[in-house]
Design brief:
By secondary structure, this protein is an alpha+beta fold. It folds into two domains: 146 residues, Jelly Rolls; 107 residues, Homeodomain-like (Arc Repressor Mutant, subunit A, Orthogonal Bundle), CATH 1.10.10.60. It contains eleven helices and nine strands. Helix 2 packs across helix 5 and helix 3 packs antiparallel against helix 4. The two termini are 25 Å apart.
C-alpha cells in the first residue's frame, strides 16, 4: 500500500509480495489521479501499450501516444491532465533502496537525459520485451518462498537497463556534451537540488562558471524560458504541493520554502500564480 504513496497512482490493495522495493501495477483510466499535482518519492516507469496520456512533468507538457515508456525520477512534480478511454499499461514503482543497489555505472547521463525528456516511443519489439520484464518481476514478487527473488529482480532490471537503456539514451549521450545543451542540463540538475535554498540566477551562473548574461542567454535559447522562470516553476510547484496539506499553516509553508515571512511568500505566490496561497488552498479543497 505505502509503496504508491505520494504518487499520481491511486492506492490499490496488492497481493502479498516478497518485497516492497519494486512493485508493478496494471493501469487503466481508473488507476491514475487526475488533475492533481503530486511530488514523487519513488522512480516510476510507465509502460503503455494502448491509449494516449497528457501530463505535465516538472512543468513540461508531454503528450504520449502508445506504445511508449515514460520514466519519472524521485522528487519530480507530476500532474496527469487527460487520458484516453482505452488506456492500458503497466507502472513499475522502485524505491530509492532498490535503485541505489542496482549500482548502475555512469548514472549521471541517463539522469540528465530524463530531466530533459522522460518520454520514449517504443518499437513493437521493445514493448514486448518490457512487458515480459514486468510479467517476470510480478511472478518473482509473488513467489514469497524464493529467498533469491529480489536479487533476481535486481539482476534482471540491470540487464534491461544496459540493453534497452543503451538504445534509449544513445542519442542523448551523443548530444549531452555538445554546445549549450550541456550547460542547460547542468543548470536543470542544479536547480532541482537547490531551488529551495537558492533562487538567485547569479548563484547558478557562478556554479556553472559562466557570466550571468551569457548563462541567461543559453538557458533562454535552449529551453524557451529564462533561468528565473525555471527556478520559479520549481518553487511554485513545491508551494502548490504543500498547500494541499491542510495541516500545514501558511507560515509553516513559508518557512519550509525559506521565505523570510508569510507576507513575502504570499506576494511571491500571487505574482507567479495569480491568486493568494489561501485562495489557492480553498480552490483545491473545493475541487
Amino acid at each position: 500500500m505505502g509503496h504508491w504513496n505520494s504518487s499520481f497512482v491511486k492506492k490499490k490493495k496488492h497481493n502479498k509480495i516478497s518485497n516492497n522495493q519494486i512493485t508493478t501495477l496494471k493501469i487503466n483510466t481508473k488507476s491514475l489521479v487526475m488533475n492533481a499535482l503530486t511530488k514523487t518519492e519513488n522512480t516510476f516507469a510507465i509502460i503503455c501499450q494502448k491509449g494516449k496520456l497528457n501530463c505535465d512533468v516538472n512543468a513540461k507538457e508531454y503528450t504520449a501516444l502508445a506504445p511508449f515508456l515514460m520514466i519519472i525520477l524521485p522528487q519530480t512534480f507530476v500532474e496527469i491532465k487527460s487520458i484516453s478511454d482505452e488506456l492500458e499499461g503497466t507502472i513499475i514503482s522502485m524505491n530509492e533502496e532498490f535503485t541505489e543497489n542496482l549500482e548502475i555505472e555512469n548514472r549521471l547521463l541517463p539522469i540528465l537525459s530524463l530531466l530533459n525528456n522522460c518520454l520514449f516511443p517504443l518499437q513493437k519489439s521493445e514493448l514486448k520485451s518490457l512487458l515480459e520484464y514486468c510479467a517476470t518481476v510480478k511472478k518473482l514478487n509473488l513467489n514469497t518462498n524464493n529467498p533469491y527473488a529480489l536479487k533476481s529482480i535486481k539482476y534482471l532490471t540491470k540487464a534491461y537497463f544496459y540493453g534497452l537503456g543503451h538504445d534509449f539514451f544513445t542519442k542523448y549521450m551523443e548530444e549531452a556534451n555538445v554546445g549549450n545543451q550541456m550547460w542547460t542540463n547542468k543548470f536543470l540538475t542544479e536547480v532541482q537540488k537547490s531551488y529551495l535554498q537558492h533562487r538567485n540566477v547569479n548563484y547558478y551562473a557562478e556554479k556553472l562558471h559562466l557570466t550571468p548574461k551569457y548563462f541567461s542567454k543559453i538557458i533562454k535559447e535552449t529551453t524557451g524560458f529564462s533561468a528565473k522562470v525555471w527556478i520559479n516553476r520549481f518553487v511554485i510547484m513545491e508551494a502548490k504541493s504543500l498547500l494541499k496539506h491542510p495541516h500545514l499553516t501558511i507560515q509553516q509553508i513559508a518557512e519550509k520554502l525559506n521565505f523570510p515571512s508569510p507576507s513575502f511568500f504570499g506576494k511571491y505566490f500571487k505574482r507567479n500564480v495569480g491568486v493568494s496561497p489561501l485562495d489557492y488552498r480553498k480552490n483545491c479543497i473545493t475541487d
